[in-house]
Description:
alpha+beta
Amino acid sequence: MSATQSTPSNADPSNLFAFDEYLKGRNLTRCTGYRYRKQGLIQTTNIFGRLYVTREQIEKFERRAIAGEFHKEAKTPSRRELAAA
């Protein structure tokens, strides 16, 4: 296949997704995504300075989230905290 030919339509989809595009598709901010990375909740791959995430990492992250591994109690602010804001 030459460089000018396109990939056949029946080719397997890529296993890599641009991390920023993944975040946009999930309505997550870049800040949240990078915090998830820093905490080790989702692993990315750096290719020439651009971050990618694999299907396997996405599935692993979603399985852990559904299982409640990341669950935290929501903190309801007190009246005093609300009044100070």
